[in-house]
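Final report, Chapter 2: Outcomes

The project's central promise was a pipeline that accepts a single protein chain and returns its three-dimensional structure in a standardized token representation, suitable for archiving and comparison. That pipeline is now operational. To close this chapter, we reproduce one record exactly as it appears in the project archive, with the input sequence first and the structure output second.
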Amino acid sequence: MADKITLTTKDRWAVCWRSTFLQGSWNYERMQNGGWAYSLIPALKKLYTTKEDRVAALKRHLEFFNTHPYLASPVIGVTLALEEERANGAPIDDVTIQGVKIGMMGPLAGVGDPVFWFTVRPILGALGASMAMGGSILGPIIFFVAWNVIRIAFLWYTQEFGYRAGSKIADDLSGTLLQDVTKGASILGMFILGALVNRWVSVKFTPQVSDVKLDKGAYIDWNALPAGAKGIQKALQDQAAGLSLTNHKITTLQNNLDSLIPGLAAVLLTFLCMWLLKKKVSPIVIILGLFVFGILMHLANLM
């Protein structure tokens, strides 16, 4: 019986380093698939010795993949463990490996932005900027060093966590652990997707429904404001108190839709794109279609 093939720490570090270039060949068709396959090459070369096996491994990892570039690390770790078990004879097929990747990448994609782009980076940026404004050269240096230390440490330790968790999944392929992980990840992904739709998808209908003249006292009388800074202060206070900026209240179709179900158009557009993808319509065709449709609707003063 041949010796078991095991990925060493050096092999896993090589994969971790390459994962920093995950978006180096980003494309609209399969998103991060090129960077994903590039990241796994050191491990695939170690696990598979024949050209045929290596080609087959690269092909299965050139399928669609897209998540937050830093949160890809735990998915990489799990994938490394599954590939290692497969190379050693475990009954793990392409569908299983791809299913784990898809099941994990969705939920993790929604976690990365709030943690890194909206929390860690602004905090470090504010610290570095405050020091730089005080004349210290340490400001940008601390930002650069601290950010990369946090980033690299997160990539490595989450990849290792995924690698160890992946081994347990591979050992329980005959049981329900893999199904539970995939199902739980899918449910969490749907919740995150629902929250992100209203944030990232914007649809606004511009047709005017009504134009009502407001009574005096319901809007800011710009001619009666004091001159200079006091006038600006008074206008801001009146606006904060709920007064209108103009003597007319214009209601658009979008205002009425938002009063009924906010974000309804964005949700319907998302469902339409999902339906088209299910019908095997190319993502590039969908993007170009939305682009042309948006321009035509804008020219017609409907959006």
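Archive annotation: DSSP finds eleven helices and two strands in the chain.
This record, like all others produced under the grant, will remain available to the consortium after the project formally closes.
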